[in-house]
């Protein structure tokens, strides 16, 4: 019998129990003061100016980003280092917005530093929290000349961060439908395919509440950005019916792409760049933006509160907006760049290239997944911005479907 | 001074418990009774209805977790006991090697191990793909995204925690005791039932505890191997905590789960007769 088991199974004396209760009560009193709210008023303009006036270049920057979001040779960052003398640390530590925010929140709430100077987050609930809670440092646009000169107009007018006060885009992508051409012989064009009995048990949907809500609403012809609570309920019913009919196999996170390419599921909600990278690897997957519409999202760079090297971070953000640097980055990650000039640069490069490389570059230049045309953009919807109160209605509707 | 020495020596241990167990538990108990949201903050309102609301919303997932945990524990016992028995009595000089082989896969991270099941059991993967090509399985056959996959994953992932305690208990059984039973005209079955099994009960007891509790609370297997209605309570707590930042609901659910498991353990200890178990162990 080991001592652990003995402790578990031997009777305790009454005195022990009272002692334990006393200790717990003391702890309870200690903790009863509640969790502090942090809702922050936007900083005043002169406070922002003061903050930036005090910052000096420290010669170092720590960049926290998602996997597969930087060429393997770190080319753009190496060039930054050569041009500015600022050393970089690049960490692929962000896998999911909710998880990242869940981990970062207690640290920032306690007034401590995350240890990162730039973090990248998708527009959505968690980014909204970062801004509302005052966790994002207001940017000094006088130090972002490349962004002013080179960012596309769409990337300067975003509802979730008007005037790019706290964030600048890193890259955008599209949520649409991916399908495995070994199993799906028809060309998929409509979002209704995801609700088709024909693919019973072979459809993957996303577990993320906003992603799945968007597709439920788009299928009903509702624009998510202008949706109301009644619309969410309707979308919820549609998605519940889809699940109860056995059409959905599973609600996926990032793992959906493996499931589609292996054939566990035949079609799925999907993120554009993932599918593009799989296609280049020769897997039988195809991506389509449904005729009814898809969603466009943007991953944004921001400087978290308490960052040690804010000025170096701001310089790096701006550096990535030089067309040549943005082109080098986009050629690898193959998402939608916020710098429109990249398309011409890649076109020029394609003209000089030969053979297979030329073909690949031509495909990129003409890809609606990397350079959506205005007609493509017209089909793309944005996430619903939600207040905290709305979130408490929104989340249960869709989580009761994905987490039954 | 001499009388104080043992207490002083135990002080680091008590401090550890106080700081890392009592204080967080108290804080969690406190949070479970608060209301509010992460943006405006939570305030203590002694709202015991948090428990009622959480339970009524998630009773399905809670019961399902207990069921899956129970099924996995039974499966582990059925698989684990014979393995432990074989190593203890038939392992010979190679006992340590068998134990090492048993533990070898568990040097790989928990999540990675579970993901590799995902790979192995893929609909058209190396196992089922081959069987389907031979026409031994229907085309639509699949194991992933089913209850079976989740319970199977739990069984696999916690199996060593069942085998090791049973092995330790069996290893201590003196073979001469079994010989004596047979000398007294017990059949082999009777000797097992009347002598070996009772002596191994402390191991079974420990094994069940060490597997049922973590298996019931586990979120990983349901997420990676499960389908549309295999969500377990661990997944719900994770979502409430990390995605919804609804700390009161997450805390209330954690406490409810803990209470259910504690009550279950005490009932189980009584039913199995802790006294007998301890006596058998002391011998």
Automatic annotation (TrEMBL), chain B:
The keyword Cell membrane applies. One of its GO terms (cellular component) is plasma membrane. Residues 62-268 form the ABC transmembrane type-1 domain. Pfam families: BPD_transp_1. InterPro entries: MetI-like, MetI-like_sf. The keyword ATP-binding does not apply. CDD domains: TM_PBP2 (cd06261). GO terms for biological process: transmembrane transport. It is a multi-pass membrane protein. It comes from the Bacteria. It is found in: Cell membrane. PROSITE patterns: ABC_TM1. The chain crosses the membrane at residues 65-87, 99-120, 140-170, 191-213, 250-269. Keywords: Cell membrane, Membrane, Transmembrane, Transmembrane helix, Transport. Its main location: membrane. PANTHER family: INNER MEMBRANE ABC TRANSPORTER PERMEASE PROTEIN YDCU-RELATED, INNER MEMBRANE ABC TRANSPORTER PERMEASE PROTEIN YDCU-RELATED-RELATED. Belongs to the binding-protein-dependent transport system permease family. CysTW subfamily. This is ABC transporter permease. It comes from Nonomuraea aridisoli.
